[in-house]
Specification:
about 55% helix
Length: about 200
């Protein structure tokens, strides 16, 4: 059974938006360092601003699609800040690169680890919080059963869909999401898309 059909059977409210939405397949970002580095750069920025800074960063390495961890470690911090990336994010990028370079963060081990184990490893890097780790699990590792109760978009979508008077608590969200296992990632994608539906 397809995840969409399974979810529609398990949750009548969710079925209402599943019928109205066509989810396009997405290609996971397989350069894990790039995925995490771009997540750090984009924190608390508009999509446009984040894209501009990422392009400036890549432009520092014209012969590469994206810099390697070693490239970031060898790059002077002033050069990184010259792209518009803040001092704090510069430190975060350096810390991420250091974790990857010395194998404290070993991407080759991820296929052996549970979602929670990966989250714990990722959040040991300065500048990577739980939300960033959850998005990485969904959109880079393509893990099928990830749910992010701290995501504001999901809170808004759930409040709208279930007609809640107040923003749902983490406990409420986890309870609502329980029937969606083992396809909570797909459920999240439907919920995010539901925010763009016309009334």
């Amino acid at each position: 059974m397809l995840p969409s059909a399974y979810l529609a059977r398990r949750d009548k409210k969710l079925a209402q938006i599943i019928r109205r939405i066509h989810l396009r397949p997405f290609a996971p970002e397989r350069n894990y360092f790039r995925s995490l580095a771009e997540s750090i750069v984009s924190q608390q920025l508009s999509v446009k601003a984040a894209d501009t800074m990422t392009k400036r960063l890549i432009a520092l390495f014209p012969r590469k699609r994206f810099p390697t961890p070693q490239d970031i470690l060898e790059l002077r911090s002033a050069k990184l800040r010259g792209t518009g990336i803040s001092g704090a994010k510069t430190k975060y990028l350096k810390d991420l690169a250091r974790h990857v370079a010395d194998k404290r963060l070993d991407f080759h081990m991820f296929h052996r680890w549970t979602d929670e184990e990966i989250i714990q490893h990722l959040t040991a890097v300065h500048g990577i919080g739980r939300w960033t780790a959850e998005m990485f699990l969904m959109f880079s590792l393509d893990r099928p059963d990830v749910f992010s109760p701290g995501d504001q978009g999901l809170k808004n979508a759930i409040r709208n869909l279930y007609g809640l008077k107040k923003e749902p608590t983490t406990k409420q969200m986890l309870k609502l999401a329980e029937p969606w296992r083992p396809y909570r990632t797909t459920a999240c994608r439907y919920l995010w898309r539901s925010l763009t539906l016309a009334d």
